[in-house]
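Follow-up to my post from last week.
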Amino acid sequence: MRNLLISAGLIAALACVAAYLGFRANSDPALHEAVAKGDTMEWLRTDFHLSAEQLAAVRRLHDSYSGTCDEHCRMIQEATQARQALEAAHGDPASIAAANERIQRMRAMCEGAIRVHVQKVAALMAPEDAKRYLALVLPKISKFDHKGAPDLRLNSSS
Amino acid sequence: MNSSRETLSDTLASWRVAPTSDPAFRSHVWERIRKRPDTPWTDYLRAHAAALSLVSVLALGAAAVGGGVIARSRVRADREAIVMTYLVDIDPRVQAAQKP
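User reply:
Got it. Predicted complex:
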């Protein structure tokens, strides 16, 4: 019995080592650290193998895009407030429908701008990385929850 | 000859055994079993080499695969989370919805 217990203990210990090695071999500490920090640039750098020059170019692209993003954000907010004011004042349905249509147009315009931006970022990457980046990001852009905070349970197949 | 045979038969016929019960009999037996010298572990390994090898290979393989599956699952979850953070950063629609 004692020998059996010693053998079982040894096998269990070796199995723990094997599990740890399997975990280490398949994990991505750099990605995990970027997620922990919420550092999307670090994610782009590590996950898509960006050189310092490529990362600097992506940063410039993001900086220039952030102005467009802020402007679009403001326009959507104004259009949404206008529609809410119409609804609060019990405006005529045609005006509310027009306000809704205006919001939808802006959302579509935003989506187009995001897609262009993402394509520009991809163009700075190596072809294989660019393909992976686009496959990861593009499907989520059109399926993003526009009405509230994003659901982190979304997955790439959704 | 006949006389001695008869004597033996008589003796056996009249022989009565009256064993006294030993209340410590069981405990003595177990004590002797416990005192039996242990098989050395190396001998035990040699005796069960095939079975222990098979169990080891299966256990280590399953553990390594399990560790890998957990790691890949965490990588997927991490990537999903950072992509969402990234999209929040670049999507004015979400930013507009999040601002008061």
